[in-house]
Every structure is written in structure tokens, then in C-alpha cells.
Amino acid sequence: MTKAVESGTPENCEDRYRRLIDTGIALSTMRDHRQLLEKILLEAKGFTLADGGTIYLTTEDGRGLRFEIMRNDTLGIALGGTTGAPIPFPPIPLYGPDGQPNHRNISSSAALRGTTIAIADAYDVEMFDFSGTRDFDARTGYRSRSFLTVPLKNHSGEVVGVVQLINARAPDGCVIPFESDILPLIEALASQAAVALDNQMLIAAQKKLFQSLIEMIAGAIDAKSPYTGGHCRRIPQLAAMLARAVHESRDGPFADFRLSDDEWYELSVASGLHDCGKVTTPEYVVDKATKLETIYNRIHEIRTRFEVVKRDVEIATLKAMLDGGDRDALTAARDARFRELDDDFAFVATCNIGSEFMDLAGVERLKRIAGITWLRTLDDTLGLSEEEARRRTGKVPVPAVEHLLADKPEHQIAHHKPPLAPDNPWGFTIKQPPLEFNLGELYNLSVRAGTLTAEERYHISDHMVQTIIMLESLPFPRSLKRVPEWAGGHHEKMDGTGYPKGLTRDQMSIPARLLAIADIFEALTARDRPYKKRKTVSEAIKIMAGMVKNHHIDHELFAVFLTAGVYREYAKAFLLPDQLDEVEIAAYLDPKPAA
Questions:
Q1: Which of 219, 241, 410, 555 is the most buried (most CB within 10 A)?
Q2: In this predicted model, what pLDDT tens digit does every residue of 231-257 receive, in sequence order?
Q3: Nearest residue to 8 via CA among 145, 166, 172
Q4: Which residues, 6 or more positions from 171, have their beta carbon under 8 angstroms from its beta carbon?
Q5: CA distance 62 to 42
Q6: Cβ density class 364-384: b for 16+ within 10 Å, e for less
Q7: Strand 64-72 to strand 52-58: parallel, antiparallel, or no bridges (unpaired)?
Q8: H or E, element range at 211
Q9: Which three-class secondary structure state does DSSP give residue 548?
Q10: Measured in Å, how far apart are the chain's first and last C-alpha atoms?
């Protein structure tokens, strides 16, 4: 506000227009909604030396005007805007219960007509209902006299709100009507303000839409798998907790690290989309709870084969008895063979679970079991899909001798797209295996740890490749340009052995390193994964401390994660009570990982 206004002396026309231009420039650069509204009202009051004023905005349904900001100098009222104090008045209806326009209220009438309304003295007007104003005056001892109500029209001519000024004052402080020569100026200010406000509301609506799309994608990824449900929704919250702790550091390695409002939003977008590439990952790979699982668990096929072998043993025994063989000896041999087959199947079934490490002796036993044969008498090329039929190398005539466990040519599925070139534009270093999938039964059952083959682990890792490709294809504005880098680095390791680019700590930004810690802690403590038991807080911290020593995660960020109690804050909000144990963080606060 200019000195002329502060001192109560009128401005000349040149000063007013210069101030109007300056105000328009200021309004176009303001980004905080509350500050913008406050600026609009205070400048309007300043132009007219008004004692009070109110800004209303149209409600979302377009049927009312809600109070956004109120000021009155004489009564010392400051509500809404940057004060944070709520305005205890309901919206003014633009239409009555009968659906007719509400022209009895001056504010609603100005909004409905889209025209400015000036009142010299509210007590001398009958066309508008000022009973509420009189009641207010009676309670406070105030005297509401002159009113200037101006609609806020956006660039499309739509009314987005109303600014109402009360009690214009002369330089000596006396209340006077609003001067007619000031009206064009206030209307020009209102027009500038409406456009600035509309732009801000449009940006806010676009952000809300984009955030909703992010949440929709995250929800779809989580819904795709019952075992990772909630992961994409929890990571943004955990990342924000850790980022806040780093942001608030006042000493140490992050003393100078600060996130602007734009960067907080950028982190929100990056963390919300950090796993968007999982939409391309086959569901059975993400959910693979057993080694033989594809679309279904193929242990049922193998069980049937064992049943066939046992029936063959039973039939052979009965035939031998009919041929005069010793019944007792044959029965004992049959039962012994049944016990062997039952034990072999139990071993195969245990291998299928993948809960224990598969040693070389186990692999050799699987190979021995695979040597057991059974007789197939039905054509196995009937009822196949076109894709399955294409993978067949030939037709074996029946009856055909089959193995209990087999790695067949049709189990090997070739890649449907060429591998990435070493000089690919994204800088990916992740290596593609020779096959897209290998469904071989012996091959899958022989997986040494867990349930995933090398091909399936590649597809799990490939979600990061797809995440970066997808995100870099989006036309992000300048303020979101780092989203692909921040989102795409949470599987990189500080020593450069991670994926998909093999980046080292020095090549990664703080937000990218931060997201890696959030992703790991959430995964370790998640209570909905089929392939591992959920960890307690202390177990997860101990594992992550080992990852620090092995140069896999950032040691300085991990220290903040511990000392600021981020792990505890997250655990109380998202984990089960039996996971919330004590952590002796002093044992994990070595300044640097082992050399």
C-alpha cells in the first residue's frame, strides 16, 4: 500500500493507475491462494479508503457465495485469508428454495447480474435486504453505511466471486459514499483479480486432477496384486516423513538442504509414480508364491502324474498276482514303492514352496525324480491356444513315455521385443536374459532361493526400466522435470551395483536416495507379501544397517531416518502392534559404511 493511502491522503489519477498496474503485476505472480485473496481485498480497500470489506467465492455447485476473507479496521476484525481464523457464516444462496434468483441480497444480486452495485446508505434502501446488516450493527455498535459490491469475472465472463467494500472514508475519516470516479478503477482491479484468481483456481484444479490420476495409477498397481496392496500409497507418506526430517536438519550433511513448495510437490509426484512401470509386469510374476506358479500353481499337474505312476504300480502288481506271483511279496514291494513316490512328491511340493535354500543335493534329487516316467495315451497338442501351438516343435505319437518333471522346448518363451542397445538413450545397464520366460518344471523347482527364476527377476527389475521410460515420455513442466530421476532411482545402490542404470551415490540426488530407503523399509515391514514373513521394526533396521555397510543405501540419510525417529513415526501409523519393538539406534550410527 502506498504512503498516500497509509496517511489517509487521496492519490492523484496518475498514482492510482500506476498502482493499479503494479497491483496487476503482483497479482499475476502470487501463488498462494490466501495471500492472493488478501492482496485483492486490501488493495481494493486502499483505493477507496474503505473501513471494511469481504470477498466471497462461488461455491463448487455454483449456487452460493461462500465467505473467504473479512476485514474491518474499526472493529478489528480479521477473518479468513492468511489469518487462519474461520468465518462463522454460512454461504449466501444465489437461489431461493423455489429456484428463483436471490436478488434480495446485494452480494448475490451483484453476482447474478454481473454488475457493480453502489449503495450510499444501506439504511435508506428497500430493494435489498439489509436486516442482517442492521442486526450486526445493533450487536456491535457499528454503523454500516456505504456499500460497493463488485463481481469478479474471469476471462470467460463467468462470475467467480464478489468483492464487497463497506464505508468509504474521506481523508478526515468521515464515512462517505463511494465516489463514482473510483468505480472504473475498482472494476479494473476486480477484473485483474478475477483473472488471477481464475488462473490460480485452474492450476489448483489441474494439480488436483493430476494428483487424482497419480492416486488412480497407484491404486491400480496396488489392486493388481493382493500382496503389494497399499505399497504405492504408503511410499509417498513415508518418503514425505523422511524428507521432512532431512528438510528440518539444522546441522550435519543436510544443513543446507531445503525443499521449496514446488519441490515438495515434485517429491509427491515422484513417490506416487515410483512404481508405475509395474503395470507392465505380469501379475503372476509379482504374485509368484511358489516356484511352479504361472497363471496357476502347476504342482497340481505334477501331483496327477504321481497319481498316474502309483496307478501304474498298482496295475503292475495286480497283473503280477494274476500271473501267479507271490501276493505278500508283491504287496510289500508295491507299498514300499508307494512310500517312495509319496516321499518324492512331498519333497517336490516342499521345493515348490521355496521357503528353504535349495542345495546341490536337493537339485540332484529333483533330477532323479525327473527320471521317473509315466505313459501318456492322449494327444497333448489338442485344445492348445495359438501361442502354445506355435511353441511346439513337433508332435509325439501316443502312447508316449513322459517324465514326471520335464524341461520341454515349449517351456522356453522367446522375447517379443529386441534387447536394449548398450548405448540406449536412457543409460540402462540392466542385462536382458536370453529368454523372456523359462517355464521348465525342473528348471523352476531348482531355483536355489525364493520362487523366482532369473527371467522373472529380470521382469521384476524391468519395472524400473518401464517406469523411467513412461515418465520421461510425459511432457512434465519445468517444475517437475526431475520426477523421472527421483522416481527411477530407488533400486540403485550407492556402490553402483543396483539397477536399472548402475548409478553410484554421487550420481544420485538426495530425493532419489531418500526414496530408496522408504521403499526398502516399507517392503521389509509390509504385512501382505506372500514370499516372506513381515519384519518387526528392529529386524528391518538391522537388515538396513547391513545394507549401509555393504554400500547399498545412503548412510547419512539412514542416520537421519533413525535419529529423527522417522521409522517410529511410520511404524505407529502403518504397522501392526506386534511389529513395534524397541530399536537401539546407537548401534547403527557409524558415521560411514565399511570401506
A1: 555
A2: 888 999 999 999 999 999 988 899 999
A3: 172
A4: 8, 9, 10, 49
A5: 26
A6: eebeebbebebeeeeeeeeee
A7: antiparallel
A8: helix 183-224
A9: helix
A10: 61
Q: Looking at residue 4, what is its pLDDT?
A: 39
What's the average model confidence in pLDDT over 23-42? 73
Residues 217 and 214: their CA atoms lie apart, in Å, by: 5
Amino acid at 461: S
Distances (CA, A) of 547 to 10, 75, 274, 499, 593: 70, 62, 21, 15, 9
Residue 73: partners with Cβ closer than 8 Å, 6 or more residues away: 51, 52
Q: For residue 251, what is its C-alpha cell?
A: 546441522
Residues 6+ apart with CB under 8 A from 92: 56, 64, 65, 102, 105, 107, 108
What cell was used for 222? 496396488
Contact by Cβ (8 Å): 407, 442: yes
Say if pTM beats, i.e. exceeds, 0.70: yes
Measured CA to CA, the distance from residue 285 to residue 413 in angstroms comes to 15
CB atoms near residue 243 (< 10 Å):
25
Domains and CATH numbers, the chain: 3-203 (3.30.450.40), 225-281+452-588 (1.10.3210.10), 299-413 (no CATH)
DSSP helix, strand, coil percent of the chain (3-state; round to 5): 50, 10, 40
Q: Kindly give, in sequence order, each residue whose CB lies less than 8 Å from that of residue 338, ignoring residues fewer than 6 positions away.
A: 310, 313
How are beta strands 92-93 and 64-72 bridged, if at all? antiparallel
What gap in Å lies between CA 93 and CA 74, rounded to an integer?
A: 28
Q: Is 12 exposed, middle or buried (0-12, 13-18, 19+ CB in 10 A)?
A: exposed
Residue 43 has pLDDT above 90, yes or no: no
Find the helix or strand (DSSP H, E) in which 367 lies: helix 360-370
pLDDT tens-place string over residues 407-422: 999 999 999 888 889 8
Bond before 177 cis per omega within 30 degrees: no
Residue 222 vs residue 280, higher pLDDT = 280
Quote the CA–CA distance of 192 and 24 in Å, as a whole number: 6
- Write down the number of H helices and E strands in the chain: 20, 13
